[in-house]
């Protein structure tokens, strides 16, 4: 099998150039889904892929596929990819690495004049983060049939703008149907976004599974009134209710260790005025666990606990689970391809479960799928301080190249 390597400097330079689009003072990146900055990033990726001889297709959810022809184009493609959208205080590597590692694989094959039997594609999945338009991974979810197209296009941000409107506005409302076409395999290279690889001094994470997630939206309603003359015992303070539920969410997470994750990340207080008792609070809950049954028990504890708190404080509650992505076992043959490539390259590695969700989670429903992790500094991600080492990024890209070559020629 070819002993070629990807180009470390070119990969790094492409990551840095892409990171300039939405680049922040602290060295991070803010390129929210379907903003003008997302459009700029998409346009740059398309230009790079066209320059590498790829043909571009965009589907109705704005997913981008850059295709490099194979010797037999009737075969389903081997696809690589991830996402270009970031968190508001995101980094330069989350998602972007998997997209540009795919491009680097294509560039390396071109440099070496290597043809593959099956075509290969580098892909970009719209709105993986779910930060601007919940839920996360919605476009790979539509591709995999977890959501219908209408649901996907109707996802709205806090200003009520929908994905369909924003796709049209930035010129990425493609014409290709979403999904319904086979992939021979799908590989997503990604930074680990956690501390394990760095702590164990391992170069590559051979990802076997991804943990399950449940996302909730909660609105508590009490009674706005004056912070001065309103006696404490008579108050119906929505923020006190939210505070008790936030503490309970954390306790549920701690009580389901190891592995449980529990986070309240978004909260809006109304009217949010220093001398008015909050009449309404909107907040989100993010639960995760690799075991579906434990995740269900956490769900139960949240529902019962929240009900008790709300009764105790005489509040009303609107409680909705807006998203459930069950734990994902990745395809054993794809995991083996990654492990084999890692061992052939003599790279230190360990098997692991992904703590974060990824487009690979949904694509694994419709294609043999697995992931390749590389370390990130102090395990920090979803933070402008997110950093990864050029050698590790190149090593992960070499693993991707080998795994893709194996599957495209078998
Ligand atoms: O939330 C996640 O795990 C991913 O970053 N969307
Ligand atoms: Mn990501
Ligand atoms: Mn992310
Ligand atoms: Mn091994």
UniProtKB/TrEMBL annotation:
Free-text remark on how the cofactor is bound: Binds 2 Zn(2+) ions per subunit.
CC cofactor: Zn(2+)
Keywords associated with the record: Hydrolase, Metal-binding, Zinc
Keyword Hydrolase among UniProt keywords: yes
Keyword field contains RNA-binding: no
Recorded superkingdom: Bacteria
Transmembrane segments: none
Any coiled-coil regions, as ranges: none
Positions that bind Zn(2+) 1: 83, 94, 190
Residue positions binding Zn(2+) 2: 94, 129, 382
Protein name per its UniProtKB record: Zn-dependent hydrolase
Organism: Halomonas nitroreducens
Lineage, highest ranks first: Bacteria, Pseudomonadati, Pseudomonadota, Gammaproteobacteria, Oceanospirillales
């Amino acid at each position: 099998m070819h002993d070629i390597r990807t180009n470390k400097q070119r990969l790094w330079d492409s990551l840095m150039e892409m990171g300039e689009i939405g680049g922040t003072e602290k060295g991070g990146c803010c390129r929210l889904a379907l903003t003008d900055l997302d459009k700029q990033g998409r346009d740059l990726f398309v230009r790079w892929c066209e320059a590498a001889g790829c043909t571009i297709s965009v589907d109705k959810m704005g997913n981008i596929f850059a295709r490099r022809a194979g010797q037999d184009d009737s075969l389903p493609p081997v696809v690589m990819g991830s996402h270009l959208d970031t968190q508001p205080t995101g980094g330069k590597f989350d998602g972007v690495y998997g997209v540009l590692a795919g491009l680097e694989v294509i560039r390396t094959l071109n440099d070496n004049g290597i043809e593959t039997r099956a075509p290969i594609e580098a892909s970009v999945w719209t709105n993986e983060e779910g930060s601007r338009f919940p839920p996360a991974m919605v476009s790979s979810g539509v591709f995999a049939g977890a959501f219908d197209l209408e649901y996907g296009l109707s996802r709205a941000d806090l200003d009520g703008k929908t994905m369909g409107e924003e796709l049209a506005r930035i010129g990425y409302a493609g014409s290709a149907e979403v999904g319904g076409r086979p992939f021979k395999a799908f590989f997503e290279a990604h930074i680990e976004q956690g501390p394990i690889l760095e702590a164990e001094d391992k170069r590559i994470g051979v990802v076997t599974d991804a943990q399950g997630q449940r996302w909730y939206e909660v609105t508590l309603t009490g009674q706005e009134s004056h912070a001065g003359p309103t006696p404490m015992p008579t108050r119906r303070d929505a923020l006190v209710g939210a505070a008790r539920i936030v503490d309970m969410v954390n306790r549920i997470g701690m009580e389901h260790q190891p592995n449980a994750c529990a986070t309240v990340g978004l909260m809006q207080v109304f009217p949010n005025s220093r001398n008015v008792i909050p009449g309404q609070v909107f907040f989100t809950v993010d639960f995760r666990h690799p075991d579906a049954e434990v995740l269900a028990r956490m769900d139960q504890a949240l529902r019962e606990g929240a009900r008790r708190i709300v009764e105790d404080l005489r509040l009303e509650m609107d409680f909705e689970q807006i998203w459930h992505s069950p734990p994902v076992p990745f395809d054993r043959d794809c995991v083996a391809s990654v492990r084999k490539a890692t061992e052939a390259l003599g790279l230190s590695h360990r098997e692991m479960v992904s703590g974060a969700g990824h487009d690979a989670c949904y694509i694994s429903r419709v294609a043999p799928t697995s992931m390749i992790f590389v370390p990130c500094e102090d395990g920090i991600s979803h933070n402008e301080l997110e950093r990864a080492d050029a050698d590790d990024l190149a090593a992960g890209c070499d693993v991707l190249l080998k795994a893709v070559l194996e599957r495209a020629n078998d």
